[in-house]
Design a protein that fits this description.
Number of domains: 1
CATH class: Mainly Alpha
CATH architecture: Up-down Bundle
Radius of gyration: 21 Å
Structural class: mainly alpha
Distance between the termini: 20 Å
Length: 437
């Protein structure tokens, strides 16, 4: 693929395609709402626990439980959700999950307004959100490649990441600053954003669906998606590198601890801590949307994860808000660097008829590194303290890079995003998309 093909000119921008524009707006609105909600769910959980007389370590354990309750439904349902994304209309699946999240926002807004919010309600909503995300992630991830020609898919992934990262930046700001005005307000705003997201995805027209494998039972097809990931060393190495690095070095679950008891910056400071990595990630995604990466993609991904771990260590030790924000900015930029490479490799190295199932496996590992990583970080903070937990996790991420570079040498030797020859055949649907004016 030439440099001209990879540049984001008006003729090659995915935003020229109406379906992708609707998809982008839907994902942006949903992400804004999700991150506004999750920040306040964590903040309310930690404060209810602390105000109830629990110590910092014990309250950190409550944050760990929130992460676990979101992860378990994902772990159980992901094989089924990936199969569903390959066999049902991905737009309808995404729409249903957004409606469920809208319901969660309305319930939390009412309970907070009535001052009857409790840990039990927060745990219940965490379970529902885990179930919803199990189906939402594979549907949206598998939908994106159906909306644009394959030649500009890396650009579409970068732009989609921008929607996600902008949501991660502005969402916590919405949550933190509106909570300071009125505790129920973040959930009200989230509900409005979910309505926008549902409306936007409803404007996406018909998209090609992968052919169904009529002669295979659903369970066999689910196993086949997992088997494909295991056999493809590139996909397996990229997915599991993120799994273990972010699982070990995930500090986001402990932001309420740092905001209240270590840096002492309150809910507005909490919003800034949550925004800092998202700003770094969004700027990195924006850069890649205009200047896509072309060479030495594997080695650069490994270096990015190592920098991610190092910046996490410094953040864990910091007692200065400016230094903490700077390190979190680097954490987000390095994470986005590796995410951009990983997602491009996974999408371009996976046949369309397996993208839903492979995306579900990828989502499971992301959830394991995020939600279950939150459980790990909170549990480790309960045992050895929050600072030691963050520092230990960052060191673990660096060690993971060294191990993975040896266990999966293909990560060190991969130079471009070019997929194998057998995946380069153009389908009739692809030809149709390439004729879009």
């Amino acid at each position: 693929m030439s440099e001209t093909d990879q540049s984001l000119s008006p003729d090659t921008s995915p935003l020229r395609i109406a379906n992708f524009r609707a998809y982008w707006l839907s994902r942006l609105s949903m992400t804004l709402a999700q991150y506004a909600m999750m920040l306040i769910i964590g903040w309310q959980t930690y404060n209810i626990a602390r105000d109830g007389g629990l110590s910092v370590a014990e309250a950190s354990g409550q944050l760990a439980l929130i992460g676990l309750l979101q992860f378990l439904p994902l772990f159980v349902l992901t094989p089924f959700s990936g199969w569903a994304a390959d066999h049902f209309d991905r737009r309808n699946l995404a729409r249903l999950t957004m409606i469920a999240q809208l319901g969660c926002a309305v319930v939390l807004a009412w309970l907070t307004w009535q001052d009857t919010i409790s840990l039990a309600w927060l745990y219940a909503v965490a379970i529902v959100l885990g179930i919803v995300r199990a189906f939402n992630g594979p549907a949206l991830s598998a939908l994106a490649p159906n909306l644009v020609p394959k030649a500009i898919l890396p650009n579409a992934i970068a732009l989609s990441s921008i929607a996600w990262q902008v949501g991660m930046i502005v969402g916590p700001a919405i949550g933190g600053y509106t909570y300071a005005v009125l505790p129920a307000l973040p959930y009200v705003v989230a509900a409005i954003l979910f309505i926008v997201s549902i409306s936007a995805i409803s404007f996406i027209g018909a998209v090609p669906q992968p052919p169904r494998e009529a002669n295979k039972r659903p369970i066999h097809q689910m196993v086949e998606g997992l088997r494909y990931v295991v056999r493809n060393k590139m996909v397996l190495g990229a997915i599991t590198l993120d799994l273990f690095a972010v699982f070990l070095a995930g500090a986001t679950a402990l932001f309420p601890v740092y905001a209240r008891d270590i840096l002492e910056v309150g809910e507005t400071g909490l919003a800034q801590l949550a925004m800092a990595p998202a700003v770094g990630a969004a700027l990195t995604a924006l850069f890649f949307s205009f200047r896509p990466l072309r060479t030495n993609v594997g080695p650069k991904m490994l270096w990015a994860v190592a920098i991610f771990g190092l910046a996490t260590v410094v953040f864990g030790l910091s007692r200065s808000m400016p230094l903490s924000l700077a390190m979190l900015f680097i954490v987000g930029a390095a994470d986005m660097f590796s995410v951009y490479i990983r997602q491009s490799l996974i999408q371009l190295h996976t046949p369309d008829d397996k993208r839903g199932r492979v995306s579900s496996v990828s989502l499971l590992t992301i959830s394991a590194s995020n939600e279950f990583g939150d459980f790990f970080s909170g549990s480790l903070a309960f045992l050895i303290g929050p600072v030691a937990a963050v520092v230990t996790g960052g060191i673990g991420a660096i060690v993971t890079v060294g191990l993975w570079s040896r266990v999966f040498p293909v990560l060190r030797t991969t130079r471009t995003f070019d997929p194998p020859e057998e995946l380069l055949e153009t389908t009739p649907e692809e030809k149709l998309k390439e004729q879009i004016p």
